[in-house]
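[#protein-structures] MJ: dropping GNAT family N-acetyltransferase here for a structure pass
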Amino acid sequence: MIREYQTKDLDTIMSIWLKGNQQAHPFIDSQFFENNFELVKMLIPASTIFVQDIDGVRGFIGLMDNYISGLFVDEQYRRQHVGKALIAKAKQLHNQLNVLVYKQNTQAIAFYQSQGFQVVDQSLNEETNEPELLMTCIVNHTIKIGKCAL
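AK: finished. structure tokens for GNAT family N-acetyltransferase:
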């Protein structure tokens, strides 16, 4: 079940965030994420957060308007459509979604491409000095029934 973030979820999602970043970004010193842990923990309530909760939080997505500020899935639930379900929830709420992905994170790039995202720009992350890609997905909310569009 996808539901809105509750304060009780904070420790779990922060654990998923830290482990996920360290696993997905071996090209960045893990100390970088540890040093930013408290800042991110403080900023979490500023985003709109949705979690997949099936006997516990399996993953979460953070949105700041139409920007995906984070999408993380607990390691034991990856490749079980958790990320796909969280993206689907975000697509229900927005006509366009944007996300920045480190260029070396090829698994994330492939995942977002499978969800309809395209690379539209490249830049250098000033904090990590790593190249990152801006990916965008235009969401079509038109539902066609026969010849009618809703």
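MJ: nice. The chain has one domain: 2-149.
AK: one more thing. The chain has a mean pLDDT of 92.
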